[in-house]
Amino acid sequence: MFAHKSPPAFSGPVLLALVLTVVLTFVAVPMTSVQAQSANDVAERLRQIDQVLNDLQRVIYKGEAPPPRSAATLQQAPAPSPAESARSADLEVRLSGLEEQMRSMTGPIETAEHQVNVIGNRLDKLIADIDFRLSAIERKLSGEQMSAPATADTSAAGTQPATTVVTTVVGDAAAGTQVLGTVPVADANGAGQQTATVTQPAPAAAVKPLGVLPDGTVRARYDFAYGLLRRLKMADAEVALKEFLVAHAEDPLADNARYWLGESYFSRRDYTRAAATFFEAYSKAPTGIKARDNIYKLGKSLARMEQKDDACASFDELLAKFNTPADQTIRQRAMLDRTELGCQ
Cα-flanking dihedrals φ and ψ of residue 80, to 5°? Predict the structure, then answer.
């Protein structure tokens, strides 16, 4: 039988010396001193610690005698200077202050994010509601009996290179036409400018007030005409808006009235008159509050009339002229319409 050989026992002082060696080696690397030492010094300290641990394992598990330790092993790092201690304390205070500020800012930031999300959800619902209402208006009006719009004459005779002519004739073409004006359009390819021209027949007689609007202030009369439009009384709204424009042509609300007059035609699918009205409104107020809406709806009306080039020219005019943060929504719609039309 083989006899079991026990590892040699070491006296208490020997083991105590080994343990103290490890402890003193760890203590020899205080935080403030490590900050002051170079990378080579730190690496040397770690190597010494690793060597001491290996020696301790050989003594405990293999029964080997402990190797002699030099005095350099137990040498402690120099104590930090008062200036270094002060800098370390100051750094710790500053870090604590930054952590406290970050904790105090977390609440307001989360509150602001929540408010932004709420506003975004409300805006999405508002846009969806407006789209639904407009779709309902178009569906309702599509079932009404109405006279077919006059045939659109899209001839472009006499045009020059880099020029697009939009010819919109309302009524009997034999009665004579009147050129309303031109809209300079920036060419998407940078080759020059295009010009959209809209014409309509000369009126046989001036439009006279029909007495639809009530007496009152300009604002009250405008609200009355606009109220007819909101109640889907498009024919009555057309008469009221025309009367308003005759009586208050120079009032700032006239720009709004011209736009809504064009909408009254557009909603009834009278795209020829809608195009002429939107073009007139844009020509009279190219920088007005409804300018971007007028040029956009002019393009939509021309697209419904299958005048692709002229519609693309209108959308190009919008994209070239209106590029503020408030214009981004209508710009996105115009770009989608250009894509659907296949504009170059």
Answer: -65, 150
Q: Exposed, middle or buried, 284 (CB in 10 Å: 0-12/13-18/19+)? A: middle
Pick from 156, 152, 151: nearest CA to 197: 156
C-alpha span between 283 and 28 (Å, rounded): 86
Phi/psi-derived region of residue 85, left when phi > 0, alpha when psi is between -120 and 50, beta in every other case: alpha
Q: How close are the terminal C-alpha atoms of the chain, in Å?
A: 100
Return the domain boundaries, the chain.
12-78, 151-206+252-344
CATH code for the structural domain at 151-206+252-344: 1.25.40.10
Strand partners, 195: 184
Write out pLDDT tens, residues 186-242.
Answer: 444 444 444 455 545 444 344 444 568 888 899 999 999 999 999 988 999 999 999
Full 3-state SS string of 219-258: HHHHHHHHHHHHCCCHHHHHHHHHHHHHHCCCCCHHHHHH
Cα gap 252→244, rounded to integer Å:
12
Residue type, position 106, single letter: T
3-state SS, residue 188: coil
Task: Provide the angle, in degrees to the nearest 10, between the axes of the packed helices 328-341 and 291-304.
Answer: 20
- CA–chain centroid gap for 40, Å, is 53
